[in-house]
Amino acid sequence: MDVLNRFGHLKTVPPGPFRFIAVDVETAGKTIGGICQIGLCFVSGTGDLQTYSVLIDPEEPFEPFNTDLHGISADTVTGAGTFPTVYAALFDVLNTHKLVQHSTFDEMALTAACARYGLPMITSHWTNSVTVARHAWPALKGGGGHGLANLKKHLGLDFHHHDAGEDARASATVILRAEEVLGMPLSHLTINRQLAFQFEGRLGE
Questions:
Q1: End-to-end alpha-carbon separation of the chain, Å?
Q2: Is 57 helix (H, G, I), strand (E, B) or coil?
Q3: Which N-terminal residues, if any, form the signal peptide (predicted)?
Q4: 73-118 pLDDT, tens per residue?
Q5: Relative to the CA of 124, which of 106, 112, 114, 182 has its CA 20 to 30 Å away?
């Protein structure tokens, strides 16, 4: 089993552009900026999903609680890149697309990690899929609410909770399923046509 991609996620970022990218992170310990895994789900204009994940050396101790939750430990990230290295490779694609997160934890974690290393934070627009889920399924309020675990049960989603790539895919799926229920696409989650032209030009070079 490939411990770097135990759920078969992509190891490299696919060519874009994308309608939006769902983002999820896992953290190692007591600091919110101690990211040990980033997961991305790239959603095309036709609703196709491609999932990517990468392990990160958080350069801080792992707490047993966190490791029990996501299964990532110091041994797991041996040889993995640090946040600045991984973030630099992802910066352009994240900074040029609309982003989705389930709650606001992921944006806060990335912001904290950037502050820790003195890196610029991405300036993309973020959509909270929890808020979208509340509009689509208001009856779920309370009793587990609109967390991914409860939505997994209610919507019959198939994913491994607390893996960053899996949770990113789940968050993207929540958006797509919510749009079906609401009967319309979220107007702000659209492909930037100028961006699409730029990507097509690069791919044709």
A1: 36
A2: strand
A3: none
A4: 999 999 999 999 999 999 999 999 999 999 899 999 999 999 999 9
A5: 182
Count CA within 13 A, CB hemisphere, residue 111. Answer: 8
C-beta neighbour count of 57 within 10 angstroms: 19
Please give the backbone phi and psi of residue 110, each rounded to the nearest 5 degrees, phi first.
-65, -40
Does residue 148 have a pLDDT over 80?
Answer: no
Instruction: Please check whether residue 169 is in contact with residue 159, taking contact to mean a CB–CB distance below 8 angstroms.
Output: yes
Full DSSP string of 32-52: TT-EEEEEEEEE-TT--EEEE
Strand-pairing partners, residue 40, are: 23, 52
What pTM was computed for the model?
A: 0.88
Residues belonging to the chain? 205
Residue 91 exposure: Cα atoms within 13 Å on the Cβ side: 13
Q: How many CA atoms lie within 13 A of 6 on its CB side?
A: 13
At 171, which CATH number?
Answer: 3.30.420.10
Contact 101, 23 (CB under 8 A): yes
pLDDT tens column, 156-178:
777 677 799 999 999 999 999 99
Q: How far, in Å, CA of 171 to CA of 190, rounded?
A: 17
Residues spanned by the domain of 79: 20-188
